Amino acid sequence: MEPTTLGVHADMSFWALFLQAGLFVKVIMLGLFAASVAVWAVWVAKHRQFTALHKAADTFEDVFWSGAHTLESFSRTLHPQQGSHPLASVVVVGLEEWNSATEEERRDGTALQRARRMMDATARREMEALEAWLPLLATTGATSPFIGLLGTVWGIMTSFQSIGMSKNTSLAVVAPGIAEALFATAIGLFAAIPAVIAYNRLSGSLGRYSARVETFVDEFLTVLERQSTKRGNGKKS
């Protein structure tokens, strides 16, 4: 009878291991597989998004610092609807606040302070929007191994129960159940490892972009301050 048993359980492919698993372990495997697909989808989508944002920021800064436009002419070419990326949105808000201020507010620094507050608030909102789906990567990376381990423990318990009922401890009986159980952990790791790598890389890219926006805000406000100082000096003379 032993050769027959070996023949029944000889198929150790991934699909066979999934089919032979219990319902609870199957649910865990399917959930982890779905999480793995979601991780890769988020990684690819966010990578493309951040790449496009950096390219758009390069183009925007090149135009802004090229000297081809004065601040007034540049502000006339921008509208709130044209804030297609965070850097442009921040500048649009700052220019709106600056253009709506009186000459006295510009000279005494009130307009500059309001512009900074509005630009900082806009930058925070834009960064929060860019953080969408990153918590999914962090959660998947942190919990997938434990969920897979739960499936493994459950599968091993089921295997030992089957061994106890059949009173057969041969390798042909034990190996398939253990393999099915360990397959759940393997899927958990398969979901967790890319999730951790993706989260670290995307968080780093987001941090660099956030620092870039903050630096540009400081430089832009310096330009506004320099302009208000020149106007003040011109009126005094």
Describe this structure in words.
With 237 residues, the chain is mainly α. It has one domain. It contains 9 helices and no strands. Residues 1-10 have low confidence and may be disordered.
Short description, anyone?
The protein has one domain. The protein contains nine helices and no strands. It has helices spanning 2-8, 14-20, 23-65, 71-76, 86-99, 103-107, 110-130, 134-166, 171-236.
How are the SSEs ordered, and which strands pair?
Blueprint (H helix, E strand, L loop, with lengths): L1 H7 L5 H7 L2 H43 L5 H6 L9 H14 L3 H5 L2 H21 L3 H33 L4 H66 L1
The proportion of residues forming helix, as a percent range, comes to over 70%
Q: Quick one: biggest sheet? A: none
Backbone structural class: mainly alpha
End-to-end Cα distance: 108 Å
Instruction: Tell how many strands the DSSP assignment holds.
Output: 0
Give the mean pLDDT.
84
Total domain modules: 1
Strand content: under 5%
Radius of gyration, in angstroms, nearest whole number = 30 Å
The dominant shape is: rod-shaped
Instruction: Give the helix tally.
Output: 9
Order of helical and strand elements: HHHHHHHHH
User: What are the low-pLDDT stretches, counting only 5+ consecutive residues below 50?
Assistant: 1-10
